[in-house]
Design a protein that fits this description.
This protein has about 210 residues and is mainly beta. It has two helices and eleven strands. An eight-stranded antiparallel barrel has the order 1-4-5-7-8-9-10-11. β7 (about 110-120) and β8 (about 125-135) form a beta hairpin. The longest helix has 8 residues, at about 90-100. The chain is elongated and about 60 Å long. The relative contact order is 0.19. The model is unreliable at about 5-10 (pLDDT under 50).
Length: about 210
């Protein structure tokens, strides 16, 4: 089931093309959803010492998805991430990441994303574009997502699920710390892969 529907572009000068009927199942998804942090993850992968990957995640985050199943272009997303919640499995490394060399979490405690556009790429694949702010830098970011569907959980909550990723250059957001290796290259790659696995709960309609 696709979250976004595509309008046909085939038409002749003598043919009037009606707008496609709205899928009731899609229309039923319309609403505001709260991201469930207990069943969601926001992570990253970065090359270390030119030979391996280090993976980490941010344990504390919150956000909302506003979905419009009848006109998906009106859908939007807002996510706030607590920088100090970064976890790579190594306490010393996490301490370095939140220091002034990298995120400077004391001065800039949050990373934020605010969407500005949503589009269908085909099938269940979508792209959400918006503004990513890290430290005091805001730049555009496009996230490719897969819509995993919707379901009613055992507590009666209506959920939707998305997973996706985006590649960024950390230097674009002022994260430039590095160290040269004796064998050539650098300790930390500039390219970082961001990953998103989101489960969100639909808010009850207001009376």
């Amino acid at each position: 089931m696709a979250l976004f529907t595509r309008k046909s572009t085939a038409a002749t000068p003598t043919t009037v093309t009606e707008a496609p009927a709205v899928d009731p199942a899609l229309a039923a998804l319309t609403g505001v959803y709260t991201i469930d942090p207990a069943h969601s993850s926001i992570g990253f992968t970065v090359r270390h010492a030119m030979v391996t990957n280090v993976r980490g995640s941010f344990g504390e985050h919150e956000g909302t998805l506003t979905l419009d199943g009848t006109d998906p272009a009106n859908s939007s997303a807002a996510i706030d991430v607590k920088i100090a919640s970064v976890d790579t499995g190594i306490a010393d490394r996490d301490g370095h990441l939140v220091s002034g060399d990298f995120f400077d979490a004391e001065k800039f405690p949050q990373m934020t994303f605010r969407s500005t556009r949503a589009e269908q790429l085909g099938g269940e694949a979508y792209r959400v574009t918006g503004d990513l702010t890290i430290k005091d830098v805001t730049r555009p970011l496009s996230i490719d997502l897969e819509f995993n569907g919707s379901a009613i959980d055992v507590y009666g909550n209506e959920r939707v699920g998305f997973e996706g990723s985006a590649d960024i250059l950390r230097s674009d957001w002022g994260l430039t710390w590095n160290a040269a290796l004796e064998t050539g290259g650098v300790m930390v790659s500039d390219k970082v892969k961001l990953t998103f696995d989101i489960s969100a709960i639909k808010a009850a309609p207001q009376a």
